[in-house]
Each structure stands twice: as C-alpha cells, then as structure tokens.
Amino acid sequence: MSSKNVDFFKKKNIWSTVKDDLLECYLVPYFSKIMATGKPTVYIDCFAGAGIFEDDTPGSPLIALNCLDKAMSGKRNVRNPKVYMKFIELHHVEELINNIPPNHRSKCQVIKGRYENHIKGILNHLKESGQSINLFLYIDPYGIKHLNAELFDWAAHIFNSAELLINFNSLGFFRNACRLNNTEVREKDITEGLEEYDRSIVKTT
Fold it and tell me: Which domain holds residue 179?
C-alpha cells in the first residue's frame, strides 16, 4: 500500500460510501438470482481491506456478507446456499479475519497477499474442480496497474457465469495515457472544478 493510503481505513470517505452503496445495490439482487441456479457461487473480493473502518462503518467484505443474508431472507426454500467467499488482502489480514462474523466463517477464506499474485491460481483451481461455477469478482484497486483485461476475458469463458464489478480512478487512466504519449500534464489542470476530487488523496505535481 502506498504512503498516501496508510490511513485509508481510519474513516470511510464519501467516494468509498458511494462505491459501497453501489456494491450493496448490485449484490442483493445478484445473490437472489444466482442462488436460483442451484450451482456453486464463488465471490472474490480482490482488494478486501480490513472489513470494518475505524469509524465502525462496514467495508466491502461485510457488505457482501450482509447482502447474502438479505438475499437469503427472501429465499425461504434455500437453506444451505452454495455461496463461498474469498477475500484477498495484503496488509489487514488479521483484522479482516477477526471482523468476519462467526456465523459466516465456514464459508469464507481470507487469502494473504497481492491480488495479482493469487488471482490466476484461484481461478485455475476453480476451473480444475470440474464444477459448473458462478463467479463474481469485485475489484476495487488502489490504482490501475494490475487491471488485466486478458484475464477477465479468459474468466468469462470458463465458468457457468462470470460477473465483474470494477472500480477505477479515471484520473489514473488519464495520467497513464499522458505518460505513454510523453505528454506532460499538471494534476491541478485536470482536476480543477471536479467536485469529487480531494487534494488530500491525490498528489499534485
């Protein structure tokens, strides 16, 4: 984690709240629909974090588990859904393990390390299981460096269904495009007037 993200989990910022609201709106109907297939579903949070912010607001892992509970409440005939959660996290592994509610721990696996070092192995293992699996990838990275479109295309063709919810910083793509084109740009020139821009997070040049 870069130096500008060391305090990320102290308090949930407004953009994190928006992303988490979108995740919740998406997952409740997703789980409700996908459980009807009767096939195993594997949900992978590729940048899971600590699970709970220091201001006691839930992070994406707990939001996903809460969404599964909400979906289950409307499926009285589904008592043991085959939904399994995998959380990849590098820095906050112990906190995440402790923050997972006891009633969910049997279906959750916390994987210590970097997303880019584990995701191919996880997907290959699921593929080799021989099961017809529904896959959901939640990818909320700190940057764009490891967003590999070829990996996503491959995953879409080997599972019963594959859905990806990806968050990314559009400024990161813009900066990278400028770098590849050897175009010099000042941060303040491209962020001035953007209401969602927070100078305490994005470094200026």
Answer: 170-205
